[in-house]
Amino acid sequence: MEITIKIFRYDPEKDTRGHYETYVVEGDENDRVLDVLELVKGKTDGSLAFRRSCAHGVCGSDAMRINGRNHLACKTLVRDVGANITVEPVLGLKVKKDLIVDMDPFFDNYKKMLPYLINDSPLPADGKERLQSPENRARFDESTKCILCAACTTSCPSYWANDAYYGPAAIVAAHRFIFDSRDEGASQRLHILSETDGTVRCHTAYNCTEACPRDIKITKAIGEVKMAMVTGKLD
Amino acid sequence: MAKVHQFDVVVVGGGGAGLMAGLYASRTAKTAVISKMYPTRSHTGAAQGGIAAALGNSEGDNPAWHMYDTVKGSDYLGDQDAIEFMTSEAPQAVIELENMGLPFDRTPEGRISQRPFGGHTNNETGKPVRRAAHAADRTGHMILQTLYQQCLKNKVNFFDEYQVLDFIMVNGKAAGVVAVELSTGELHTIHAKAVIFATGGHGRIFEVTSNAYAYTGDGAAILFRKGIPLEDMEFFQFHPTGIYKLGILITEGVRGEGGVLINGKGERFMPRYAPTIKDLASRDVVSRAIYTEIKEGRGVDGKNYVYLDIRPETVNKFAAEDGRTNPDGSKFNLTAEQVLKKLPDIIDFCRVYLGVDPVTQMMPIQPTAHYTMGGIPTNKFGEVVIDDKNTVMPGLYAAGECACVSVHGGNRLGCNSLLDIVVFGKHAGLRAAEYVKTAEFEKLPENAESAARSEFDALRNGSGKENVFDLSNEMKKVMFADVGIYRNEKDMQSALEKVRELKKRFKDVTVSDTGKIFNTELLNAWEFGNLLDIAEVVALSALNRKESRGGHSREDFPERDDKNWLKHTLVWNKNGKLEIDYKPVVITKHQPKARVY
To answer: Complex ipTM, two decimals?
Structure first.
């Protein structure tokens, strides 16, 4: 089948502003949008720049706007979006070239969440693992699925309005540890998130939940963090 | 001129092995980790089923069994000293990951949960043993995340999106690397006393693969061009269950949870090939069985795929026939809810890419190029050894899939790769940190980056008659068809000639993008050059080994030949000409015997 793909292009070494180029390629309805981009790059215009690696939705490299919504290009099939496709970089992060945006601010927000287990208590004397019940493990299961693709944060109107907001992905990272029964850093993280750039900026638009390619119920997770902040309880 | 940085240790690669090396080296040495992607993008994150360790959390197990299973899995080509080291370190390595925060699934008692996996057995009964510690079907993702988080906690220096281009060697010792910063196109020289390569495998030489685009064998290719040999490159693992056509991995954990393979006639066929452990035989055995079913006309609808079936009614029927029980002795009964909980990503992949729901439908699968057993030769401390006498190159280390210790020999067992990266990443990091305490910096050569610069220039100035995308497809097709699951002299010879022809034609490519900022066209072309170099070594090594062992199955030499071939292959690049030699296999406890599952 014939696929028409309109792609946002911007080369900072040549262009003063972005523009769109349209390419027509021969493909299949089962092709990933990433396959179509690879074909354009391989056969028509090698200078087209985008990030990709695993090509099956687990590395988080290729979040982009496809027909106006955030998706992973490798997890979106032509049959899902039709043969007329528009591809643009995600919003809210500076475009470096074509579909590549500056991810440093995104990772900086992640790092502010103290995204690592905090537990200064002695390890079990038997030299084995810390114990955790299956129920306690299940409590934060969803937020461990995050692949840091930024689809959620860059779909969030609050983040577009104010990029000082840590954003949904960072809060998911905080949630992953706050609700881990082995962790002792919840109060530090809740304190960070209670600042002006924290959860108060979430207005439950639900864009993040819709954008998440890992089906994490992000708005719900943010709600749980907000609740923990109010009640001081983690259950 | 390139920007120059100085570190005691530089780690190249931000996957599991690189992060573990970075974490341990940085405890005492000034360390940098450079990675061509943000580290969380690394291919460790695609590993699904688990990490092997004889913790014995659900049933009796011990490292000696794990050692024997790994030796047998390797078809006796693995070095037994290294295998014993890895399997005895395994329980502590997994516990350390848990202590770092890794969210393993739990048993009712709150311990790390373990599932059966291919080739891992109770050595007394021969039955599958629960040895794979897991976090749903995203164990690799959780290892990658946890190690990255620990690196952040410990303030490891990262150079994200820096592509390594060259290894600097002075007076026969490591002196650093040259890299390009992708966002600016600037070259950087990282002057170091010790260099640790953890750059992953090279599955992208094959058409159908589970491997990421990034898997272009950069580290192995760079060192090979510098005159360092590559070991056992003929051994490449084809994982039995990739999604039909796409090659996306469907974890062996599906079979660990009771899933079975079904041919086009609706038969469960693995009992005919592996009467004792059936669907949980070693990967090479299962891939050959699938290939044989297809070749003999029992693929689905005459096509080259079969089914993987995890539907609870199928699983429970065969579990009853096999007499499978739960660890507490109760009747094994898988429910749809458990499938959803234990294998969420697999369900998701099948729904997205196939429109198939594994709870109610069978999954169409075919073997997919999956894992590089060969690579940069190292000893069990991660030190790179450069000849048949295992002479160490001072300051040079390798760990993870790019390295060949060799713990996987002719065929890797599932869940031993995550173990490999954690154990050998750690020891490479520790060893390098120890080395730099007394080693001095070698003086950098003038214009250390000039070789890298000329490689780029060549790609910019070719005639333009050839196109990288097309050449790459030609290579992948011929390698998959002719140096794949089954091999023979004639096909491999023609594959080798084809790769050599492609190498010549590669000189005629030109990169159209003249920019510096994120010039991914230039980088992809350079990576393809690495794949071509690697493909030539793979084809040559395979052609040379006249026996069948592990993942190397020859139609013209169908038997294992311990008399002539119980030895490692080493291939050198001597000024563009490839030379082959061998080194002995280390055998300590287990003498080779017939391999039956």
So the answer is: 0.98
